[in-house]
Amino acid sequence: MNALAATTAAVVVVYRLAGDVDRLLGQLAERVGRVVVVDNSEQGHAALGLLAQRHHAVLIRNGNAGGLAGAYNRALAEIHERAGGVRQIVFVDEDSDATALASFLADAGVAALLQRPDTAAVAPAYRDRATGLRGRYIELGRWRLRYLPREFPGVREVAFVINSMSVWRLDALRRIGRFDEWLAIDHVDTDYCLRARATGLRLHVHGAHEFAHAIGERRRFRLLGREMQAGGHPPARRRLMARNTAWLGRRWLWREPAFAFLCATRLAYEAVGIVAVEDHKLAKLRALLAGAVRGLFVRPARPAR
Asked: Is the pTM of this model over 0.90?
């Protein structure tokens, strides 16, 4: 294990205990210096305590308080309190395959970026398990945005990274602050990236490294010659996604108008995917509309930070 890996802590949030968490924790124990597991199920998973103990991981019971954002905040509070040489955090989903993490942390370019004080995070590119398509990353200015090609070599500065398998500098996390628990699940990483950019920090994706990732139950389709993906989420989740998308667009409209435009087009994209290839179309479209309307007019019950 190299110096970068040894000073990295992995945060694994477990909600369903659906994947092979035992294998995942074993992979992480071999690849990073510390592992923190958050049991985020409301009922709790009795088996998770034994798995954490087997792999010398710290276990935190959160009971889904604050959703995914709350789980991240509990884990980071634990790490901040007992940093013990930790300088980076990698966020990992319970169904992740951490095989690619070893080569990613061994990359000299990744190490150099994580030494820079203006770096917030560095991430490998992700490829969707269901569709086989690589994620589309974005370069964002105040008034314009540009989609990068799905396939690209080397390092690119981007506007957003997904939390899964992204490696964050601990100093940057302290500077940015807590994850927004009002958002709960969807777009907690989008909001965090926006806040990182607002503090002058940079986000990078290394196209030479990639990992498999699942977002919903995506389906691939073509429209007007363009390759597209439908999300496949159920109506309740669609409502939350639309609420958070609309609220973030409204919140950042004056500072990041191109991002607000992106939020509007994202809602339209979701609607097109529902109509094109998904089932329960009417229920999902209603949920999407209801969530978007709520996001435009709701005021969070507590501060975002």
From this structure: yes
